[in-house]
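Notebook B, p. 112. Complex prediction, attempt 2.
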Amino acid sequence: MSQSIPSQRQSTQYRSRLLQPETERSADTHPLTWRLRDDGEAVWLDEYLRKDGYQSVRKALNEGDPQAVIANMKEANVRGRGGAGFSAGLKWSLTLQGGDMPRGYLICNADEMEPGTFKDRLLMEQQPHLLIEGMILGAYANNSFYGYIFLRGEYVESARVLNRAIDEAREAGWLGPDINGSGFDFDIAVHTGAGRYICGEETALINSLEGKRANPRAKPPFPGQSGAWGKPSVVNNVETLCNVPAVILNGADWYQGLSGDRTKDGGTKLYGVSGPVEKPGLWELPMGTTGAEILERAGGMRDNRQLKAWLPGGASTGFLLPEHLDLPLDFDTVGKEGSRLGTGLLTVVPQEMSMVALMRNLEEFFARESCGWCTPCRDGLPWTVKLLQALEHGQGEEGDIELLDKLAADCGPGLTFCAHAPGAAMPLETALRHFRHEFEQGVGKPRGEAHEDPIPVGQV
Amino acid sequence: MAIIHVDGQDYEVNGAQNLLQACLSLGLDIPYFCWHPAMGSVGACRQCAVRQYKDEDDDKGSLVMSCMAPAADQTRISIEDEEAKAFRASVVEWLMINHPHDCPVCEEGGHCHLQDMTVMTGHDRRRYRFRKRTRRNQELGPFIAHEMNRCITCYRCVRFYNDYAGGTDLGAFGAKDNVYFGRYAEGTLESPFAGNLTEVCPTGVFTDKSHSEQYTRKWDLQFAPSVCHQCSMGCNISPGERYGSIRRIENRYHGEVNGYFLCDRGRFGYGYVNRSDRPLLPEWRQQPDEEPTTLEVDTALARITDTLRHSQRVIGIGSPRASLESNHQLRELVGADNFSTGIEAREQACLALMDDLQRTTGLHTPTPRQIENHDAILVLGEDPVQSAGRLGLNMRQAALSRREAMGEKIGIPAWNAEALKTLGQDVYHPLHIAWPTATELDDVATRYPLAPEEIARLGFAVAHIIDPAAPVVDNLDPATRDTAQRIADDLMAAERPLVVSGGSLVSDSVLQAAGNIAQALARRARQGGLVLIRREANSTGLSLMGGQTLDWAMDELTEGRADAVVVLENDLYQRLPAQRVDQALARADIRVVLDHQRTATLARASFTLPAASFAEGDGTLVNLEGRAQRFFQVYEPGYLRPEARIHESWRWLHALAAGLRREDATDVNLDEITAACAEAHPALTGMVEAAPGAGYRIEGLRLAREPHRYSGRTAMRANLSVSEPRPPQDEDTPFAFSMEGYSGFDHPRQQVAFAWAPGWNSPQAWNKFTDEVGGHLSGGDPGIRLIHRQPGHRDYSLRIPAAATAENTLRALVLPSLFGGDETSARAEPIQQRMATPVVILCHIDAEALDVHHGDTLVLGDSPAMTVHEQDDWPTGWAGLPAGLLPGLAQGEALTLSKTTGGEP
Amino acid sequence: MAEPVSTSTLIGSDGFELHPADETAILEQLKHYEQPQAACIDALKIVQRRHGWVPDDAIPAIARVLGIGPGAVEGVATFYSLIFRQPVGRHVVLVCDSSSCFLTGFDELKQALVNELGVDYGGTTSDNRFTLLPVCCLGACDGAPALMIDNDTYGPVTPDDLPRLLEGYP
């Protein structure tokens, strides 16, 4: 008995893994994952250096032209892998530097909390030096004097690995003063969070980094103008930064070529699937791979269930239907279908799942994770939850669905302070559009008489 | 200037503002919550959405938050757009989800911004059918009541309390739809500006506890434009009265003095007006220790004039807490040669010096609001928050405004509050404070804990660095030299350096040093400023009026050169040692005391005349800028208490003077008295212009003291008599004791009793009375400056004190104290609850010499036990004692402190 | 006269003292940041590591060490879900309730946890061993349904796995 406890813990322990064997991965085609080991152990400095590690830092710093790094990134059009899809190179080019502008910060957004997303964990746990290398390049391009990896507190293993890797890199002179004799100084600290999804919003993340409540900040000014402690700051996702070394080493054309003619977005993407599929997992595939291909790699639906709908990239993306499976999953194509690529990790919904119940679960998440700053998000989302709960239990009233329509519309982009509520509105709006009948089934009552105006207006 | 297009109309607006502010300034109504004119925009509530179009051809546009969009030239918006209106209705609906339906029992009701905005957006029925969340409230001390169920999470409270006022104990707790605004732990709100939460909060979360105990709706209160009497700042207030007592004090907007905010002494210190022990009738006492008998007015006047007429010489002792008019009438009664200001000699010398410095150093005295534009400040020997309350807030804004300069460089507008806060974290305009102990401004300042003489020496050294022609300080230690250099560098680098000093240390040399710095800066032809803090509401006025010192008056009596004294609203025991006052009063055969409080001095009176407090009388005060401001009677005490015989002191004194001349006391009015005062004192000539006279009318109407919804007037006195008498007639001012009269905002005026406009019942209604929101009253800000720079030359003062030498004596360093340091407000109950327990601050060496430790107690004679507070950097040889603790204690007086002997601590 | 309010000039009142090692650890964190407030979350975690939660009196104590206001510290302490402002059990079970887990058996797993522990969200078992809390997506969606016990992440977890899994946390 006592021996079985550790084994039970062992066997149930979660491990991040890539479902592609080493044989399938190469430096030419899998810039993010080709160095990963089949045994899932982290690639430490020696091995990383053996596998061309820090070559791009050597190259960029030797060339001594930060603007060239930015130009390269712009040309490669590496779009933000945290979900927003904004060009990293463009973001870097807008960062204030020079003149009497103080050197700022390069912040890695490693606060991976988007429901259905488990990609950054893999990169951090198994290939920490790739991220460090990407950060050095980002810092060099943006004249950042210090870097933070803002890591969610639950990623205990990532923290352990990253801290060890940072020590290794510092020891070997890849971090600290005068990196590789270039005269460029830069160092990194791992900052672990204490929960809360909103920390993934880049300006909320900065507030959290500063030890404040993670309310987002108004933009403009953008972090590149006034970020952490008011200094120009760049916030990039883990996967985005992990793309940088290969872009710098191999060039923008090569990067663009990785996705072939599937899409105009270049590079590869860590795609994944979770939900009731046979083999939920993670793969590095060319940008623009279709949902169908990814679902096939996952072995299709579990137990021969039917696919009803899917979220292309996390809870804050809109529902797509089986008919959308053949679309290339890139930022613009998915955008045209009323959804977003998001993080590119698919969540599949089986036929028997109630969309009302699922929406209730999603909205509970968004309502709970609201920072409480702006009214639509703070007070609107809990109302959607209550309406959905009522509908789920057949207690909905006439008008509830229209109210949900209005709530979803009122939580749209531009109306709320940040993208959190729009993220909650998008699945709701698409679910109401595609599966309205399921919601209608929850309406079991007329409009409550008790709520009617007891004294008609004008007769008081 | 910019042109914006709103719903098809073109308007010229201030392009530096955001669209919300610009539209409100135009008189267009857009609902809002989180935005506040003094605190800028944060975009949290989303209430102020409007549709903005890209250009002329854009017919689609998109919704934007008007508070977060610049009022840039050629901006096109629609407030009336249907979608914008629908969204704004949604926002109020969300805010009301958890808001209780308790308006009828809520103290905010009737002046609630949330009510106003809900009506404005048309939200009139609830669709939310689920359970509301409920909260627990906190006990937040004697000033503020807390009802969190009403909270709409606009974040204004924390933004004011923490970001604007520098508080640290209030916070926003929790997240999602469960954000709680309160103290980190139950207890008294520490900020001396906490009271502003009652006006900053758009609904009834934070309400005035002093009002609670005698609650009246805004519409049932009678108001008059008044001026706070609790320090020399001269904040404009709007006291509200019902049934013969003051029920609350609200801020009265003044674009240059107090803006939207007051300090807690001013807001909650009015309780002395309502004290039940106030003298209501003239009293007579044959022997000093016998119970007084009350007299009818005529009898009292006759007896007093009779006895005074038989006196050989009458000394009149005036008061810096009484109006110019009353002081002048006293002076008229006793003659200029027999008139004392009632101010202790050293303080009076300091006041005279301050007037002189304001005129002659060459630096202008900025208004409190202008202080906020100064980019380097040196405070020499003052603790501004303790000595002048509200002024400390202005100085904090000056320090914080560095961020605005930084923001300008990268295009962040001044109204983008959170962005500027982010950009300029812990970056402040230099604020140097030479003061021996902690101040409320320390978090944004560099403080030098020095003894009074060292503060003066530091000041002289700074002046010498700025202008080598200023005298050099001998034997300056290197540390002080470095400090002086740093301060001088900051002042010289600034565009608008400011020197702040004042009378708190009662030190000629500190003021002379401040004068030298001011003069040195003036020579550099920068737009510098000089602010000098006086102690009491009319200290400046009394100084301008002039008169003998209190010490002189005491001597005249003690030495038998006078046998009668008339004391005006002044407790002499607060100013001089009891023994000396006793001695002097004992020699006077006749002691006439006019006051509204039963002070120790009044207890020694042979005749007492019940004086009006600020609430029952009119008069003029001069604040620390030198601004003469009129305060108006709020209510007529005799209307509800027919037995009361309370009158302005100037009226009593005028009657006494007439009696002395054996004339009938013809009635007199304020305008005549004010004019006489102005005529008699060249320095006060301008005071007539401080406010319009009694004949002022708008559209032929008097100005109403009561809102037009004022209820119950006809039954007000029903407990006394069923027939309603004619309302009191006010011959002194243009105001009527009535709801009849003008109370609107469309005719610009300076004197506004209360702010109300259709749809705007809350304090936000002030925005209808200003030229632009957050600007000046549309009729001009009230008051008139009496002290002006004079051309000419001032010689640098050479009165540099010698470096301190080790002495064995311990001297009193009386520290101004916001709660307790002011004679009258210290008589108000909530202020008493906020007073600190008696402490004495000592340095380690002196504590050791007295054989006491931190937390032990000491006494001075028969004083209450004082807890020893050891402060590491406190100057040796000084004992820090909060003002008000030991009445009559002189600044710098040698002390013999002794340990308490057993018994109670 | 009433109780003194703790203004800066007066004697401080509350008695909680940070463990010296914790204070050192907090001060160590300051080195990483431009401003002391940034160490606030770290400081709360350090205190939590020692006490299991953040006691009320630790708030002003942390505020003093960092030189910031207690209101700000409490604002942060109550904002973040992994800072506990109420006592918790020796082990904290964080069960992921986000979409992927919801689609793969969260309801059953959570019900099994409630049955096993005898407490619902926010509850602590009577032997003070476990506290059950929800957590937002653990980033272990390919191992859904997932949960975390202390620093260990598990997934996929079936109701049957629970008894022996929990046994590992005495």
